[in-house]
Amino acid sequence: MEILSTISFLVRPTTLNLPPTFTHGLLLGFLAIKFILLLILESYCANEVRVLLGRKGGKSLYLAAIWANLRNDVLIGPPMYHVVVTYICTQGPLTRAEQARSVMGILVVEGLLFFWIHRAFHKVRGLWWMHRFHHKFNDVVLPSSANAVSTAEFVFAYMIPILIGATIMNADIYSTLCATYIIQITNLFIHTPFLEGHWPSSKQNKSFPGWVFVGTSDHLHHHRHMTAHYSAPVFHFDRVLDGSKTESGKQK
């Protein structure tokens, strides 16, 4: 009976006749949770914050990072969210199994697109201007630097891959939001120095989960050297798509 109940739960369609206030509430709730988590992680990086603030131009850079977070998450993100919910997300109903497939599909599509876009930022000289601001946080990386990106980068590298993933997977609002939550939270984790060696790292790259997922060590290595580990924030596609690179970022 338990097996039948589980199967019934997975194949039972969900109802998506949601009022706008409910969907807006989901977004506001997510933003609140994300900013609370950001404050917690940032507080654990107080030493790194002090190092940055003690440098010449550090205070203005830190303020610029805070403004970028507010601009991207509060001013740019919600309108694009509205577009996705209104014009992209299917009205369903989807089963739980279909929702799980949609979430996984969005994560894969977003990860692949981000890998190629991010790699292009570094390899194509004419695109570097979009990514330059994010790499002002190289030797001092903070959780707040996760979304400290230019408007162009936020739209083209952060938002559009999710939009394309939701379109390809014919995802509903729940699937899209769930995938977005995973992407945003893991993006904070890979920019949090004290998680280096604890969140799946490059030291575990020959076994699961370190080989599959982007670790904090991987992404901090990218910030320090800018020659490898272009994948972020969930799946580590470099292992397959950029296999000519060693962990040090040098060509074999």
Automatic annotation (TrEMBL):
GO MF, one term, reads:
oxidoreductase activity
Q: Which UniProt keywords apply?
A: Membrane, Transmembrane, Transmembrane helix
The cellular component terms of Gene Ontology attached to this UniProt record, alphabetical and capped at eight, are:
membrane
Q: Domain Fatty acid hydroxylase spans what residues?
A: 105-241
Ranges annotated as spanning the membrane: 22-41, 103-121
- Report the domain of life of the source organism: Eukaryota
A GO BP entry is:
lipid biosynthetic process
The compartments listed are:
Membrane
The molecule here is called Fatty acid hydroxylase domain-containing protein
Top-level taxonomy: Eukaryota, Sar, Stramenopiles, Ochrophyta, Bacillariophyta
